[in-house]
Amino acid sequence: MSTTSSPAPGAASSHVTEQALSEGVRHALEVSRRGCDELLPEADWIRKLQRSEATGAPLRIKLGLDPTAPDIHVGHTVVLNKMRQLQDLGHTVIFLIGDFTSMIGDPSGRNSTRPPLTAEQIKVNAETYYRQASLVLDPARTEIRYNSEWSDPLGARGMIQLASRYTVARMMERNDFHDRFKAGTPIAVHEFLYPLMQGYDSVALKSDLELGGTDQKFNLLMGRHLQQEYGQEPQCILTMPLLVGLDGVEKMSKSKGNYIGISEPANGMFAKILSISDELMWTYYTLLSFRSVADIAALKAEVAAGRNPKDAKVALAKEITARFHSAAAADAAEQDFNNRAKGGVPDEIPEVSLSGAPLGIGALLKSAGLAPSTSEANRLIDGGGVRIDGAVVSDKGLKVAAGSYVVQVGKRKFARVLLA
């Protein structure tokens, strides 16, 4: 849910015609706009870009992520990709790990209070975040910060002073708070602190631009408001769409099981990208690919003219798999996928040692982890979905003798079974 109510953005009324901009600023503006949902206020961002070009001083661009899970998925990389694009323009990017704000719990888009994480959970999760983000960002040009640096020293007195900078009435304009209050759903007082603390991060870092998903708009604009309160030039904000998951319906989420983890094996990553719809593929190209807008438009035109859309999907799958693994791993994943599609055996399959030969096929499939139960194993056999060394198994009463076998269930499940 996008929280559209927000602090007053304070956008300037003057308008700069793009024809009057230098080539460098026009290019930076084009990069900024690519795939974004909103860039606010754009006139202020243009002025910041012009000042940076004139002075040679890079702009400070901030992205904050709370380590609420052990690792991140490609949906998180939508904003990381934008950071990398702006980093490649020469600007300073700040990857902010919200170790303090994680203890509050972000209420954005929530219809209930989110349980705060323990300090131990936050520490474990934070250890993987920057390492994984570095697969997208250039680590040598990335400033990594933790918001406990300035949030812990703030203390009770500082927290009270910060809270005085915003009103309850304005806080209740936020969609999720408004809806929960109207429905009689509890809102804990500490939840009001989250947008204040995220906004204060922008004050502490003196950021020129803050990035986030569309669900973060209220929090991002809070940073702009607080910077004005503290006498700083207010940051601009850039929101990116929330990536739709593999199901083509819900936003990508581990809890919904429709995600692609950036640390999962190359073969699985490649196959998952191949599973998305042809229509969703173009959204993934816009938000995840590093190919130019012109290249993507040309590829889309080729598909519209009759080229097999699978060609474009394979190219996307190889690009993303190579980013998080290697070009060689992407090539191998493509070969593995093709082998599976043809009924071939992948290069690497799990080995399982079993005893009890001769063993009934149903018990073998269950013991090897290829079927959840004997009855499900029998159903798979009835459907022609079980093979031993490439031969379809049709007899549910089959007793398998001792030996080594490649057992396949469906197109993707394999095991090398050593039966004694």
TrEMBL record:
It is found in: Cytoplasm. It is an enzyme of class 6 (ligase). ATP binds at K254. Residues 359-420 form the RNA-binding S4 domain. Its main location: cytoplasm. A motif ('KMSKS' region) lies at residues 251-255. Keywords: Aminoacyl-tRNA synthetase, ATP-binding, Cytoplasm, Ligase, Nucleotide-binding, Protein biosynthesis, RNA-binding. Its EC number is 6.1.1.1. SUPFAM superfamilies: Alpha-L RNA-binding motif, Nucleotidylyl transferase. The keyword Ligase applies. One of its GO terms (molecular function) is ligase activity. A motif ('HIGH' region) lies at residues 67-76. The keyword ATP-binding applies. It catalyses: tRNA(Tyr) + L-tyrosine + ATP = L-tyrosyl-tRNA(Tyr) + AMP + diphosphate + H(+). Belongs to the class-I aminoacyl-tRNA synthetase family. TyrS type 2 subfamily. Homodimer. Catalyzes the attachment of tyrosine to tRNA(Tyr) in a two-step reaction: tyrosine is first activated by ATP to form Tyr-AMP and then transferred to the acceptor end of tRNA(Tyr). This is Tyrosine--tRNA ligase. It comes from Sphaerotilus microaerophilus. The gene is tyrS.
